[in-house]
Amino acid sequence: MDRIKEHFSTKIAPAQAEIKAFLAKHGEESLGEITVAQVYQGMRGMTALICETSKLDSQEGIRFRGYSIPELQAKLPKYPGGSEPLPEGLFHLILMNEMPDDDDVRRLSNSWARRAIVPQHVFKAIDALPLTAHPMTQFVVGIMALRTETEFGKAYARGISKSEYWEYTYEDAMNLIARLPRVAAYIYRRTYKNSDHIEPDPKLDWAGNFAHMLGYDNEEFRELMRLYMTIHSDHEGGNVSAHAVHLVGSALSDAYQSFAAGMNGLAGPLHGLANQEVIKWTLEMLEELGTQEPSKDQIAQYVHQTLANGKVVPGFGHAVLRKTDPRYMAQREFAQKHMPEDPLFKVVSNIFEVVPGILEATGKVKNPYPNVDAHSGQLLMHYGMVEYDFFTVLFGVSRSLGVLANLIWDRALAMPIERPDSTTTLLLKQKFNA
Ligand code: CMX
Fold first, then answer.
1. How far apart are CA 185 and CA 420, in angstroms?
2. Residue whose CA is closest, atom 11 of ligand 1?
3. Would you call 370 helix, strand, or coil by DSSP?
4. What is the pLDDT of residues 359-403, one digit of tens each?
């Protein structure tokens, strides 16, 4: 057993015992009422899941195992000479519930570099798709082609005890995280760079190597990838991608199947695809207005037009948050530090000033403030990554850290198959004599 796995194994029995004792004492207590409206309206605010790795507060934003994003930026290990947190450290923190040191991070980097071999048939499966296939479609095909490598699937077919499930899920999760950057970079280079592929550099960290394989070797872009991969990783359990992975995994589908399901959810425009929609919307606005430096009045007019056309303003609003997303602020600070004069950053900043007031005035948008997707595209565009159809794949690679750490824990805690009750309008009407 490798040292990371061995370390994780020591966490399982105490966590199982803690939950068992808690359930024995408080298992029959109520968490509150569920209203009819909640059942119809996307289960908002209905506590129905356990996700140990992170918790979202509507006012404050996300905390990973209790740490806010600024705290993570201060405390997580950095690449030598760098100032952004390493995603390896974030993964260690959320999986182990322990702040990592430099050795923990190095061990993870090395483990993922060793596991990063992608079989040729995965590239062939992707190559079978036309170049016009959306990068998220290519990504999901790549993930499913990788499934030939599942350790859990093979072990289950052989016949293993329930107590061993987590061990094979751990192997699948670690292999998948290790291989995703290679698959994603392959899709990028195939689709936009004439299949001029770049070999991995195993000496680099996970995010630095990803930047390298994408073809962006400047240190500032690597730092951006480290920050990006850290802050997009986990957003508690109820968002579409995290919930989909957990739900599909609850049927004992393996990590590849579960993660592919989550990525199909991330590819929806109300979720992760919003990061491409933001840039598309912004560029269309600049084109229509005929200027790269629109005034706030011009932006306001365009926002009103978007709403009048029955469309959402991408990058704004959130199902849980009621304040500006701290992930947005972390990216804004990166822009202020590295590219304060970037014209597109100025446009994004003006949008940030203009949009909340307009959305608030509609009287129906519950959160008029920007979310994570409102800023990421501008940062990528600054370094020359202009192919915005690809942006959601970057989100997906990062999201693997959170959802797969959770899947390992799901197996370690022997979480049961998810099967909530559903009802009909007729039955509800009868119940309330309506
Ligand atoms: N622009 C215009 N209208 C918006 C809006 C926006 N940015 N955000 C919410 N609304 C509208 C909703 O469409 C809804 O309208 P109807 O009553 O006509 O259906 C109304 O305001 C109330 O919605 P809400 O309760 O405030 O928001 P929800 O919890 O239903 O939805 C979200 C949340 C994110 C889907 C929504 O704010 C949205 O569509 N935003 C734009 C897309 C986006 O940026 N998504 C990315 C979210 C982050 C991520 O997952 O990556």
1. 38
2. 365
3. strand
4. 999 999 999 999 999 999 999 999 999 999 999 999 999 999 999
> What confidence category does residue 1 fall into, taking pLDDT thresholds of 50, 70 and 90?
confident
Q: Domain extents for the chain?
A: 108-270+397-412, 274-382
- Both tokens assigned to 198: 């770049």
Q: Nearest C-alpha to atom 23 of ligand 1 is from which residue?
A: 365
* Distance in Å, CA 188 to ligand 1 centroid: 29
**Does the beta carbon of 317 sit less than 6 angstroms from any atom of ligand 1?**
yes
Q: What is the mean pLDDT of the chain?
A: 98
How far does CA 240 lie from the centroid of its chain?
Answer: 10
101 is catalytic: no
Determine the distance from the C-alpha atom of residue 323 to the mean position of all C-alpha atoms in its chain, rounded to a whole number.
19
Strand partners, 57: 61
Distance CA 291, CA 280 (A): 15
For 36-58, the pLDDT digits (tens) are 999 999 999 999 999 999 999 99
Q: CATH for 274-382?
A: 1.10.230.10
DSSP letters along 46-97, please? Answer: -------SEEEETTTEEEETTB-HHHHHHHS-B-TT--SBPHHHHHHHHHHS
State in words which class domain 108-270+397-412 has.
Answer: mainly alpha
Mark whether 7 is an active-site residue: no
Strand partners, 111: none
Say what the pLDDT of residue 58 is.
97
Nearest atom in ligand 1 to 319's CA = 29
pLDDT value of position 208: 98
Residue 368 Cβ inside 6 Å of ligand 1? The answer reads no
